[in-house]
UniProtKB/TrEMBL annotation:
Gene3D superfamilies: 3.30.420.40, Winged helix-like DNA-binding domain superfamily/Winged helix DNA-binding domain. Keywords: Carbohydrate metabolism, DNA-binding, Xylose metabolism. Pfam families: HTH_24, ROK. This is ROK family protein.
């Protein structure tokens, strides 16, 4: 156990102070001291260092309860930036955001025809270069975060298995380091999403949380005691391959009846093809996709609505397993399939009500990600920011 040396105490204080500014800005030095119980001189000296680093800046004057109006503090929003990348199965979306995690610029790149590790790295590099070109000369990128579908080893920054691209062992961090001399973090998309939900929750971040990213596959990000849960080989959260029906359809993984065989966009399309006369898809140029089935549901097509209710049922069964396994404070759902949340969520909640073991389990908190299609991107950004803030708190401060 580390004892409270002066240096260590100072770091802990700095961590508390910077996070207080992050979550409560604009805030005065006096308010920080009052709310964190750190002495005013210590707050002042740390704030001075953070301002010298360009991480924090003084803004307008706040209100005073008599006497001089205090200067308010906030994170700087035009000096340091982070790159967040959502590397999905069909395209790459890159973003440039400030220290508050606000997305300022975006770029898209299709992954069509990308079928080798080399081509994938090339696409990532191009995306990051494109988004970096929005920077002005006196602005810096503090890190790059990549949220990647499939099995990811965040320590090595490697995509071990990216099933939707059919690629394995992509050394993302190592290869990108040849082009970019800044910290690079690679994380599984659902885990990044979970991190984003916690990091950007400024008032009530949960200590336990499960996120589900439901699209072509289903992945879960699990937070236990405030930390991401990985398992020994980074496999934890592969709930898409939890067996729900032992005699069910064969999954991409080769097993039968995995959760994702019952919830993915693919099953929505195949159910629609089998049950909805093709004439209904004429107005969509005969395109039968998850989205067109959703649009049919919105226009009142009962069979389409029924299909979404069945998908909601399967998601509910997956979630009740997760609830009984992890008993999280909060469950957050995201991914393209959740675009149809108006049809899915009531059934999901109904299944949890029916099958929860206790009254509290029945009333588990389930919500849709407030970031919509940006949930994974926000997660990639949060992964970088959490490291940046840890570094600010722990490293020796250096001045330029
Ligand atoms: Zn499977």
């Amino acid at each position: 156990m580390r004892l409270g040396t002066f240096e260590w105490m100072k770091s802990v204080n700095r961590s508390i102070i910077i996070n207080k500014i992050r979550t409560n800005a604009p805030i005065s030095r006096a308010q920080i001291a009052k709310e964190t119980k750190i002495t005013p001189p210590t707050v002042s000296s740390n704030v001075k260092e953070l301002i010298a680093l360009g991480i924090v800046e003084e803004t307008d004057y706040g209100t005073s309860s008599g006497g001089r109006k205090p200067k308010m503090l906030m994170l700087t929003d035009n000096k340091y930036f982070v790159v967040g990348v959502d590397a999905g199965s069909q395209n790459i979306q890159a973003s440039l955001s400030n220290l508050n995690g606000e997305i300022l610029y975006r770029s898209h790149c299709s992954l069509k025809g990308v079928n080798t590790n080399e081509l994938f790295i090339e696409a990532l590099t191009t995306s990051i270069n494109t988004i970096s070109s929005f920077l002005k000369t006196n602005q810096d990128i503090l890190g790059i975060g990549i949220a990647m579908h499939g099995v990811v080893n965040p320590l090595e920054g490697e995509a071990i298995f990216a099933p939707n691209l059919g690629l394995t062992n992509i050394s993302i961090k190592e290869r990108l380091s040849e082009h970019f001399q800044i910290p690079i973090y690679v994380e599984n998309d659902a885990r990044a999403m979970a991190m984003g939900e916690v990091w950007f929750d400024k008032t009530n971040a949960p200590l336990s949380l499960v996120t589900l990213n439901i699209g072509r596959g289903v992945g879960a990000g699990i937070i236990v005691d405030g930390k991401l849960f990985y398992g020994k080989d980074y496999l934890a959260g592969e709930i898409g391959h939890m067996t729900i029906d032992m005699n069910g359809d064969i999954c991409d993984c080769g097993n039968r009846g995995c959760l994702q065989t019952l919830t993915s966009g693919k099953i929505i399309v195949s159910k629609a093809k089998a049950r909805i006369p093709s004439i209904h898809f004429e107005r969509f140029n005969d395109q039968i996709t998850g989205d067109t089935v959703f649009q049919l549901a919105c226009s009142g097509n009962e069979e389409a609505i029924k299909i979404f209710h069945e998908i909601g049922h399967a998601i509910g069964i997956g979630l009740i397993n997760l609830i009984h396994l992890f008993n999280p404070e909060r469950i957050v759902l995201g991914g393209r399939v959740m675009d149809a949340s108006q049809y899915l969520l009531p059934i999901v909640k109904q299944i949890i009500q029916e099958k929860g073991l206790t009254g509290k389990a029945k009333n588990s908190h389930v919500e849709i990600s407030r970031w919509g299609h940006d949930a994974t991107l926000k997660g990639a950004i949060a992964i970088v920011l959490s490291h940046v803030f840890d570094d600010v708190a722990e490293d020796e401060l250096t001045y330029e």
